[in-house]
Design brief:
Elements: E1 4-14, H1 18-25, H2 33-41, H3 48-65, E2 74-82, E3 86-91, E4 97-102, E5 105-114, H4 121-134
Antiparallel strand pairs: 1-5, 2-5, 3-4
Helix pairs in contact: 2-3
């Protein structure tokens, strides 16, 4: 039996309020990666795009860096936390300035999956040897 490995992707500074991003992120928690991407493609929220990018980044890390099978990937953790806040002022009547904050979010994606099965190098050498013999 193959062991499950966990790979994570962390996206910082998404220029949206964390409450709005977490509503979209909660739709895909504990789902297959391919199913989650289909769900987010049909979600009419602006926050869906950064969540899709974070999931695709985690999938790319798992497949290319850690050698996991892309069909076995499951989202184990989808977490949204508050990022840095920019404090700004908006002009108001009678020379006043009203403060407001531009909020940002951080998205944590953890993906679990099994390793790709290893190809047997001996079979490849045998095929090359047979080709040489036939020539």
């Amino acid at each position: 039996m193959t062991d499950l490995l966990t790979v994570r992707s962390y996206t910082k500074g998404v220029d949206q309020a964390p409450r709005k991003v977490s509503l979209v992120a909660s739709l895909v928690n504990n789902r297959n990666v391919d199913d989650a991407l289909v769900i987010l493609a049909h979600t009419p929220k602006r926050a869906a795009l950064p969540v899709v990018k974070a999931i695709e980044s985690a999938r790319a890390n798992a497949v290319n860096t850690h050698g996991l099978d892309s069909k076995s990937l499951v989202l184990t953790t989808v977490s949204v936390t508050a990022g840095a806040r920019l404090k700004r002022f908006k002009p108001a009547s009678r020379g006043r300035a009203l403060p407001f904050q531009k909020k940002s979010a951080n998205i944590l994606i953890e993906v679990s999956g099994s390793l790709k099965p290893k190809k047997k190098p001996a079979a490849a050498k045998a095929v090359v040897a047979e080709e040489k013999e036939t020539k």
